[in-house]
Design a protein that fits this description.
By secondary structure, this protein is mainly alpha-helical. It is 49% helix and 0% strand. It starts with a helix and ends with a helix. Bound molecules: protoporphyrin IX containing FE (HEM).
Length: 186
């Protein structure tokens, strides 16, 4: 006896399956964004970045007072050194089983650019910061203190690999630490 017939006998309903009963060919075929009415973000053809909600650009968004002299900028290896540190930080964090899930489906092109600008600006290495403030940038990511610690460990490793002196590493971390109150949500 077919399963439909058996069920029909039990429930007293028609044995003919309706279109709604038909299973989709494959779960991958479903465009959940479309089903949900969510807009697809399209990457900018020049920058490769995805659009974000409108925000007011201001250097206050950076979340820390920049250093005055150029000692930290030099210790970090100037803009080239900061770029290498940020690239490595993102690479380590995307492959870190403790936090990699948080980075999935996020705009890593934009993150690399704005994180570089942020550290460069704070270190007084000659950049301006054009990104969002830390609260807006991390809204809804559900970041915990443990996530924060994992990211800081990755940053320390990236700086160590670039031979940034320990004292300079700590100077930068001291500027970033207070941002935790705007980043941590859980
Ligand atoms: C002091 C620590 C941190 C700093 C300085 C920082 C800095 C930034 C910056 C500059 C942005 C981009 C802003 C923009 O798009 O306008 C950003 C976004 C992001 N951050 Fe952080 N972050 C920190 C901690 C963390 C932690 C702990 C995680 C997760 C473990 C994290 C995950 C992310 C993700 C996934 C985005 C992209 C969000 C999106 O594109 O909507 N961040 N962060």
């Amino acid at each position: 006896m077919s399963i439909f017939l058996a069920l029909a006998l039990i429930t007293g309903q028609s044995a003919t399956p309706t279109p709604q009963d038909a299973l989709p060919q494959s779960a991958e075929a479903i465009d959940w964004d479309k089903e949900f009415g969510a807009e697809k973000r399209v990457a900018d053809t020049v920058t490769g970045e995805l659009p974000v909600d409108a925000y007011v650009q201001s250097e206050d968004n950076v979340g820390a007072k920049p250093f005055q002299g150029d000692a930290l900028a030099r210790a970090l290896g100037g803009q080239a050194g900061i770029k290498a540190i940020v690239e490595r930080l993102v690479e380590l964090s995307k492959a870190d089983p403790r936090i990699e899930a948080i980075f999935q489906n996020q705009d890593m092109v934009r993150l690399r650019r704005t994180l570089f600008e942020q550290i460069c600006f704070i270190a007084n290495a000659g950049c301006s910061y054009t990104g969002r403030d830390m609260k807006a940038a991390h809204k809804g990511l559900g970041i915990t203190r443990a996530d924060m610690n994992a990211l800081v460990e990755n940053l320390q490793r990236a700086m160590r690999e670039q031979r940034v002196p320990f004292a300079a590493q700590n100077r930068l971390l001291a500027k970033l630490a207070p941002m935790e109150r705007d980043i941590q949500e859980r």
